[in-house]
Design goal:
Order of helices and strands of chain B: EEEEHEEHEHHHEHEHEEHEHEEHEH
Low-confidence stretches of chain A: none
Oligomer: heterodimer
CATH class of the largest domain in chain B: Alpha Beta
CATH superfamily of the largest domain in chain B: P-loop containing nucleotide triphosphate hydrolases
Number of helices of chain B: 11
Number of strands of chain A: 0
Mean pLDDT of chain A: 87
Number of domains of chain B: 2
CATH architecture of the largest domain in chain B: 3-Layer(aba) Sandwich
Low-confidence stretches of chain B: none
Number of strands of chain B: 15
CATH topology of the largest domain in chain B: Rossmann fold
Shape of chain A: elongated
Mean pLDDT of chain B: 89
Strand order of the largest sheet of chain B: 7-8-9-4-10-11
Largest sheet of chain A: none
Helix content of chain A: over 70%
Structural class of chain B: alpha/beta
Order of helices and strands of chain A: HHHHHHHHHH
Shape of chain B: elongated
Largest interface: A-B, 24 and 29 residues
Chain lengths: 268, 299
């Protein structure tokens, strides 16, 4: 356990000056800022919307950009980034000749990648809520203050996090085994595009494809009812759906498989 | 014995890299592990550190088996394998601090190490911008950081300038002399090992060809008679016809195995009688460099 905590701290120490780490902070910051500026400069058009619809449109723009394309790509980069730091410096041999168990070194790396994804999604959540509230202060005609969706949005981002675990574990393993950038990246891109297509054509077994999970997780959350009703739509999230179970299953399987690979792997 | 391996074997694909290697490294010595490039030195070191798993044989370090006491053993070893493994986006100090964190060594030790390998000036510079020699010195500092009992260094003087080589040599000798450390150092340069090692192991094609103290190695070196003259080829033929074995002919120089003073006189007379002017004749010790070459080439 001590070795695990030491390794985890070292992961943070090593990566705090890398693109992978800053990506997790800059990505939510930039996207939320862009949408924020868009609403700020076009507040006259949004002024008529009731609070709930305003929040829904605001959050769904950010979620749409993130969930469909950016999240899988971001997760692929994180999986690559935490492993490439060792490939590039040729430090696997030193890591595995330290008096720390291989299990601790490996698990710390995986958990750190998990933490980065979690942090990124948490920042998305925090920035969305904060910027929405800031908007209603700056432009009182935007009625963000009339509705609260903290709990709903929190569940959505939690679901997105769970949905990204399958991709993360798969990509983590690919980047652990292969030192180069193109192989895991290429497979990841193909997977992501295949996922988008399969969700688009509504293939009934698309929940088996990990790259489709983030998109499936946010699909249909903000659907407007077909016949307009005076009552606003009720917002609810079913957290544990098929894709989430599959995502968690894949994460567990690949995490364990990765450990056996590390255990057997010769460090050349 | 600090390191004791028995019948160690390892292969990559169908290539046998290490063959029944039995290493014995006594405590408190500098053990020079010599061999030409590709002899299996780095592979042996990786086996010792449990980075590779042997096909056959056992490895005991501090009288404990590496497979069952991995963490205990590794906590007493500091190592530098091949080119130093350094995070190039971190500074020299940060590289050491990161390792200090993992090994739970106080940060004060980092400054001591920087001082020791003379990197204090460049401590806050990105390690990626270091010269090869500086990287090597940082690698040595990383190996020594935890104050280990056994120091394993794979070609540590690669890329160092003559001053750097002397500093590292003196540092290692001091560590052994004053703190009773054991140093296991690999090299393909005999001259380097000869100056500091007390024990030597010579390996080629994965096989141990010689293992013993440096004195034993020097004892193996047979003396020769060195003759300097003009027409060495003709003189060599003459000596050959007269029953002498000429071991080497190099323009103007002849080398014949030394037997006795009288024999040396006879060689001189024989050459003079046949019109060869001998400029110099005398007994010479075959140097270790040649011995090393002949040991590794004859295998």
């Amino acid at each position: 356990m001590k070795g695990f905590i030491l390794s985890l701290r070292s992961e943070f120490y090593k990566s705090r000056k890398t693109l992978g780490f800053w990506c997790s902070i800059i990505l939510p910051l930039v996207i939320c800022l862009l949408v924020f500026v868009g609403y700020l400069t076009h507040s006259d058009k949004m002024g008529k919307m009731p609070g709930q619809l305003l929040w829904m449109s605001y959050a769904s723009i950010i979620l749409g950009v993130m969930g469909s394309l950016l999240l899988p790509i971001y997760v692929i980069i994180i999986g690559y980034s935490v492993n490439s730091i060792e490939h590039k410096a040729d430090t696997w041999k030193t890591l595995f000749s330290l008096p720390i168990s291989k299990w601790s070194v490996y698990a710390a790396k995986f958990v750190y990648a998990l933490f980065l994804v979690f942090m990124c999604l948490l920042l998305f959540y925090v920035f969305t809520i904060a910027s929405g509230n800031l908007l209603s202060t700056l432009k009182p005609e935007l009625k963000f203050n009339e509705f609260h969706m903290e709990s709903f949005l929190g569940q959505v981002y939690l679901k997105l996090f769970l949905a990204s675990l399958g991709i993360l574990s798969l990509q983590f393993l690919l980047s652990l085994v292969w030192a180069d950038f193109l192989k895991p990246m290429g497979i990841g891109f193909l997977g992501t595009i295949a996922g988008m297509i399969l969700v688009g054509v509504k293939w009934e077994y698309n929940y088996w494809i990990p790259y489709a999970h983030p998109l499936l997780a946010i699909n249909g959350l903000f659907k407007q009812p077909k016949t307009p009703t005076p009552a606003p739509p009720t917002l609810s999230v079913e957290l544990f759906t098929n894709e989430i179970y599959v995502s968690l299953g894949i994460a567990v399987v690949f995490f364990i498989a990765g450990f056996f690979i590390v255990q057997k792997k010769s460090v050349k | 014995m600090v390191i004791n391996t028995d019948q160690l074997s390892f292969h990559f694909g169908d290539q046998q890299v290490v063959k029944s290697l039995s290493l014995q490294v006594p405590e408190g010595c500098i053990y020079g592990f010599l061999g030409p490039n590709g002899a299996g030195k780095t592979t042996t070191i990786k086996l010792l550190l449990n980075l590779l798993h042997p096909d056959n044989g056992t490895i005991k370090i501090f009288d404990q088996d590496i497979t069952t006491h991995r963490i205990e053993i590794l906590s007493q070893i500091g190592s530098l394998i091949e080119q130093p493994a350094i995070y190039s986006h971190l500074s020299g100090r940060e590289n050491l601090c990161n390792r200090a964190l993992l090994l739970q060594v106080p940060v004060s030790r980092v400054d001591e190490m920087l001082e020791l390998v003379r990197l204090k000036q460049a401590a806050n510079k990105k390690a990626g911008q270091y010269s090869l020699g500086m990287k090597q010195r940082l690698g040595i500092a990383l190996a020594l950081l935890s104050d280990p009992k056994l120091i394993i260094l794979d070609e540590p003087t690669n890329g160092l300038d003559p001053n750097g080589i002397i500093e590292i040599r003196e540092l290692l000798m001091k560590l052994v002399r004053e703190q009773g450390k054991t140093v296991f150092i690999s090299s393909h340069l005999l001259a380097e090992i000869e100056r500091m090692a007390t024990y030597v192991g010579i390996i080629n094609h994965g096989e141990m060809l010689f293992q013993g103290s440096i004195e034993e190695l020097q004892g193996l070196s047979k003396p020769l008679v060195h003759v300097e003259l003009t027409d060495s080829a003709d003189a060599a033929n003459l000596l050959g016809r007269s029953g002498y074995t000429v071991s080497d002919v190099r323009d103007g120089n002849l080398f014949i195995p030394y037997t006795s003073k009288e024999d040396t006189g006879k060689i001189n007379t024989l050459l003079n009688q046949h019109g060869h002017v001998v400029y110099a004749i005398g007994k010479v010790q075959k140097d270790l460099e040649n011995l090393f070459l002949s040991i590794t080439q004859n295998s």
